[in-house]
């Protein structure tokens, strides 16, 4: 890979994906769903350094604070309205309300989020400069990993009690 | 740049662009218009390695064969139907008909095109893994550069007469 | 930068830093202190793609869950004992107890932490493959950014009440 | 590859190629021949990021407009005289007449060409910053790909009739 | 590699190494020993772009002039005192005496060395921005390669007699 | 740089160099002369990642063992015959005799040399995958740096006496 040809034969469908065409259901805890279109879905992307995803939001839906360890993200709003933001390494929140057709950027590796504070549904197309950007949803990463991150770490980091840690773990589907 | 901070102060609008929201007129020779959203329009993209563009097509509209010297491209069809293709370095055309919501990839540096063979208008969002992908529309690059590429080069390359070269130059707005 | 020489003249001290030699006080909320040795402290590192840091821990001290958006980290334990871990993009916690002289790796961009569960103090030297790795301490990034991340985002992400969000914000020094 | 050793054993000949020593015949349609010396011919080049080629020109011979999707090119004229040029993304032709011993550069991904307008033969050595630069000869890419690029695309792009498209296809060895 | 996942399963020990904890014997010709901690010892480092090493010095011990063809190096002195230096491409020696806790940088690919001119032992931890930095100890590279570099090359390069070349080869364990 | 345009205006001569056309005199100590054609001579090369050089050899002339800290090198023999070699990080000498028209590769950062053991003059064109490859001629780097590398380092590294070190320093133009 990278140094030489990757695949002996290929077809146009190796560069194609139809799975972002339709809105996905958003009747889950966060009110949002992310549908990826990366090298897992599009094998021809290997070594090409790009990928996409679709994000659907119900009213009030949140794509919770997360990072992509290997990519910058840029989004285009398909419909609806989103409050978006990222936090810099100087701990400054950079945020805006964006609407249909607007473009916004989330620099490489920084924590960011999008929330639909509008009345109707919303959707966005995200693009990444990696064929495999990866994602870490912060709350689930900390409170629902397997095996679990210890209560002592989380209690101290967030300055909350062990009981409060365990309640968050329970709600996010993690184990103590 | 790249090694260190780029700008002493910034605001959210440095990462934002509203210019892709609306369809652009397509009543031109090719029946298509490309609206860029790169580091020229979004200063915060500098060193971040991504950008976007919107491509609008009238019925029959063509985004003519072109290359991006510094980027892979991935597109998402906003509406309508497009015949898309790229040509490999082994001179194989990789092409498909794609429709609303479909995603397709054009590998780094390869000649590619999109044409709207449908009955209504069409539009797509393109993303690139460079903040400044660059573009060379092949026909205009060869037949409408300033100063002009010589007739002898173009005549021999395309195996056409000097008169035919000059006719193409004239139609594409180039000088002899 | 990157393309050409960076500085017209330089001295050996541009490549040197004495500030990691001594333990730093750890009598703060988390019981740990990070002392950086990157391009801010060592100007000669510019474009060279490495840096270091020293991390001191009191007994029970925590270097809380954080990411480096631009670097992989590798640490060497100077003395004491540390429980260390990172979480993968598949939400798997990879953790170990390491002691004096041990080496451990935290892959690029992933959330990781170190905690001193031993009885005495501990210290480690960290190295990064960037002259400016950046850092985001997750709890402070989310609960103490300026301007603040909204309660609605944090309440929904962690499935806690607005009151609980505000208590964490207050303890971590953030504003509502 | 790239991350680790590529080959268990090797010999000096893996880093060697004798195939550029002699002029190649140029009695073809374009009056020029390109002989590559890349990772296909020199396996030791894998991951090393360089390669070479020899270009021979008869009198009037043309290395037609083409791109290298993955490399910048720099040439050294072995003998004879060449008119060389590349077109920028601002559609400016940058061209010169160069002679024996001269060096000229063709920036990454841009359309460029060389033509021998001198009376005798000419030859040049080209070097690339990729072990596998790839090449797309524009006219053949568009008019002789398999399967063929449709007449409608080419007719509209070059503003010529379907009949003219088919004549070029026929002369360049492509199918309708 | 690089483009995609490297290993189907892994354990924490793939990211761990205990082999730098103890001083290594330095009773050899140079009075120093380098213990690597790179991708050979830590498989999880693959594609992550960092590694470490421990360098132990007896009194008077020398880590002789050498290069790392693929990495910048940064060191932290564990104990003792070292005279360190690198030579720039402008043939300027950049050197300092550094002691316990000090940090110093050796830019990518440049010849550098460390010598313990103190009275007791010394040790340092080195970090590299490559999982496989490679090393060429200059004297051994030139005078103890297999097959040997010819006497004519070495005699002329160092302006010494063939007999002197052979004496160095003999002392460094090389063959004539 | 790298992120954006480098120069507001340019001319074809920014991409051109005539200084490699003629053989340079080789009546010096080593019997060889290197003439560079990098970003110092060709400003348009900035950020483009390639450069060239010409190497002229008298009979018996030596381009002494050296490294390029930032580039792989590939050479083409213009005339004459050369014995060429590089040493791997496993201390294996990879060497060959090459003649007019032959191509040989010297991997990134490794020590390498060329010597003209033929009866007449020889010359080669070298290409690099950096616009500024840098060079360190090993003997001069060690024995003729300013300020000088100490006798104790060189004596121990090469296992020669201080007197022998000083003799080499003297012959290579260095100071004690």
From TrEMBL, chains A, B, C, D, E, F:
Name of this protein: Germin-like protein
Keyword Nucleotide-binding: no
Phylogenetic classification of the source organism: Eukaryota, Viridiplantae, Streptophyta, Embryophyta, Tracheophyta
Keyword tags: Apoplast, Disulfide bond, Manganese, Metal-binding, Secreted, Signal
Catalytic activity from the UniProt record: 2 superoxide + 2 H(+) = H2O2 + O2
GO molecular function terms listed in the Swiss-Prot or TrEMBL record: manganese ion binding; superoxide dismutase activity
Quaternary context: Monomer. In the absence of manganese, it forms tetrameric and pentameric forms which show superoxide dismutase activity.
GO CC aspect terms: apoplast; plasmodesma
Compartmental location: Secreted, Extracellular space, Apoplast
Originating species: Rhododendron simsii
Positions annotated to bind Mn(2+): 66, 68, 73, 112
Main location (coarse class): secreted
Residue ranges constituting the Cupin type-1 domain according to the UniProt record: 18-166
PROSITE patterns in the record: GERMIN
Functional note: May interact with bacterial adhesins thereby protecting the reproductive tissues from microbial attack. Has no oxalate oxidase activity.
Cross-referenced InterPro entries: Cupin_1, Germin, Germin_Mn-BS, RmlC-like_jellyroll, RmlC_Cupin_sf
Family: Belongs to the germin family.
GO biological process, one term: plasmodesmata-mediated intercellular transport
């Amino acid at each position: 890979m990278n140094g030489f040809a990757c695949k002996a034969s290929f077809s146009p469908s190796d560069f194609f994906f139809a799975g972002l065409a339709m809105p996905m259901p958003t009747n889950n805890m966060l009110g949002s769903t992310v549908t990826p279109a990366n090298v897992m879905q599009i094998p021809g992307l290997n070594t090409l350094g790009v990928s996409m995803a679709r994000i659907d939001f119900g009213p009030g839906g949140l794509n919770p604070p997360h990072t992509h360890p290997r990519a910058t993200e840029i989004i285009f709003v398909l419909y609806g309205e989103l409050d978006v933001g990222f936090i810099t390494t100087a701990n400054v929140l950079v945020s805006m309300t964006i609407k249909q057709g607007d473009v916004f950027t989330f620099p490489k590796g920084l924590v960011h989020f999008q929330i639909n504070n509008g009345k109707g549904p919303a959707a966005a197309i995200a693009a990444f400069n990696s064929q495999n950007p990866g994602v870490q949803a912060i709350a689930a990463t900390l409170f629902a990993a397997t095996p679990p991150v210890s209560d002592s770490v989380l209690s101290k980091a967030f300055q909350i009690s062990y009981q409060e840690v365990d309640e968050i773990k329970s709600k996010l589907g993690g184990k103590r």
